[in-house]
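dumping these here so i dont lose them again. two proteins, back to back, each one seq then structure tokens. dont judge the mess
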Amino acid sequence: MDLFAPSHIFIIALVVLLLFGGKKIPELMRGLGRGIREFKDAKDNVQREIEGHINDDRPVNSNNNASGTTPTKQVSSGSSSNN
């Protein structure tokens, strides 16, 4: 037994027509369409925000220290000197 058989859809449509009347059904459908459109827009905005954060992440360089300051250059005490 199928839940959305043609006879079931007909009965549901008849009940909706009796409950809301012929003039209210277009308003209900417009409201439903706006709600679906707003949901899709919100979903797309969240998806774009997540993708933006993923793209903004930079690869972590192993030379960076935890304090966030730039590493200092190490000077060797070799035989070459700048005179």
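---- next one ----
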Amino acid sequence: MTDDAGVPCPRRATLVFIFVTVVLDMLALGMILPVLPGLIESFVGGDTARAAQIFGVFGAVWAVMQFASMPVMGGLSDRFGRRPVILLSNLGLGLDYVLMALAPNLRWLFVGRVVSGITAASVSTAMAYVADCTPVERRAKSYGLVGMAFGIGFVLGPALGGLLGSVDPRLPFWAASMASLANAAYGYFVLPESLPRERRRAFEWKRANPLGSLRFLRAHRELRGLAAAAFLSNVAHAVLPAVFVLYAGYRYGWDERAVGLSLALVGASSALVQGALVGPLVRRHGERRILLGGLLAGAAGFTAYAFAASGAAFLAGIPIVALWGLAGPTAQGLMTRHVGPTVQGELQGAMGSLQGVATIIGPMLFASTFAWSIRDGAIWHVPGAAFLLAGALLVLASVVVARATRTRGVT
């Protein structure tokens, strides 16, 4: 197959490797989540409150490093090609998990988390790789497969991490390292370069930084609305990791097993939607309609979460929220149409920075909203207020998309 400009590009090898890369990256990240809080707690003498505060700092720092690193990764991939950036990131992530597995104290564990935030930023380069090798009319479907990979990793990672962590709290770090290093080795022998030399451009720090990347989005008028909608959607996405565990325990009395199974259902449903529905629905109805439908489905599902009076009612809302998974791949596909092949890495880096900002803002926003809604003496006692807020953000995102695409002939 050839890409938009007729440059040979092995699409099958691309999608298989990118799919495996994202699955293994998410698997590795997910495996350490169940054990990282406990490992931190062991370093502070079993003080749970202090461990929770430190874990919050770790999460914020990880998001900040993503925000700062993704534009750099994108710029480097536009200059040197996608292959070396992806492979070096996987190698760095694998070695970093070794560092975290051997960390003798909290300081070294923190260093490992910082490095993890940098090396995990390769996902934006993987997205640019897909754009290099996929015709514009098929990109939404390809990004849907990438989203499916995220879902699979999200389902399997925490479950496997919990199982390994029950044997030894450091074992998931070793397993995550093996997954990332195996990914790097696999890519070294399988992954071809997707960006020809004639399409590369010089690396410039004024572009390869968070502020420069945001200026890039601002300079492309046709991207502003879609980028704003993606930002709102990413903020809304933070509601589940921010409040779900506390919300489910507070309202339904769910234990860790029930929470874990429900999160697995969320991940599996999202993977099914993105892997099986995006391509056929986009071909039939067009990217604009599917993007708007996905955002509104997410808003409806979050509203169902907010007012679900029982755990069964909450579970019934999961398939509705899963349809929100239609929005991400179609938004990615639409945005890649508006920039040339030499700046796909910069585009994905810029979107990664926006996602980093959303990851910083979202948890604080929704955790505060949940705390406010259940506090003693609350005038409006609605435990699901955080989900209502997330739904409102998705409605706003749909309005932004409708206006941004209305006059540009996008279907």
